[in-house]
Design the sequence.
DNA sequence: GCAACTGTTATATAATTAGTATAACAAACA
DNA sequence: TGTTTGTTATACTAATTATATAACAGTTGC
């Protein structure tokens, strides 16, 4: 899996990495049980520090996207992905609210917004199914 | 307009304030030409520093949501809201992509996601139209 | 056994951001 | 003449982000 980071972005590197890996899972480029590079390998590949990778991995582990075996390695959770819990649903709403607020203020209709979302959905899932 | 800030949130105060004001515009609680409290008044009301308010106002001014007259005051842009430019469309996509990526990874369908968005749309716009 | 690798932990440092605290300025206004 | 406006400047604290090393304990392969 190819990961491009934007070092100039205001989005922290560890968050970019977390998001890219989740998107990789969403697009099925990464499948359950698949091993991920070690923190040191990934750090060398991307040219960033080991701890930055570790921070992303810890977030992914905390949310249940990956498993970390002490001296074995990192794998995409073989037991499947975390479910749509009420807690996640709420955090999703909290994240969407200011975004949708601005869209409305700028005159976007619910339909317009839905089209944008649909575009992104198909962009991410257009791969083999 | 009543503004509640969460001082414990990981979202910076000035961003919370920016988002609340934009949501106020979206819900038509704030209308074009309506004056906003001065940076000092707002700071006193919310119990935060003047510069924190000023930072939010500068962001809103920069995006065209409000106008700031040097010695008059701050008003919601009387000439209407900023349009849906290509630049905004792109930043909207950039913001939505990681959110939608996680939704897909957790097994949400486009339809499920659309329902959540529709809920938020109606929550914000349920007021007088 | 030994070397290489794993995640983990610890410490230190630099840069940036967020927020506060004052203070002063020039223009507008009652 | 005060008061209020946005603006600008300086200084400081705290937290976050990212890097740089270093060491540890368990695993694996030779």
Sequence:
């Amino acid at each position: 899996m190819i990961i491009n980071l934007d070092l100039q972005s205001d989005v922290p590197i560890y968050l970019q990495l977390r998001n890219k890996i989740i998107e990789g899972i969403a697009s099925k480029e990464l499948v359950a049980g698949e091993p991920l590079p070690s923190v040191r390998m990934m750090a060398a590949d991307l040219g960033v520090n080991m701890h930055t990778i570790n921070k992303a991995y810890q977030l992914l582990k905390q949310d249940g996207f990956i498993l970390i075996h002490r001296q074995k390695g990192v794998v995409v959770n073989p037991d499947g992905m975390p479910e749509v819990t009420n807690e996640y649903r709420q955090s999703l709403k909290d994240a969407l609210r200011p975004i949708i607020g601005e869209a409305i203020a700028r005159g976007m209709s619910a339909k317009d917004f839905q089209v944008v979302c649909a575009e992104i959905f198909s962009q991410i899932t257009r791969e083999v199914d």
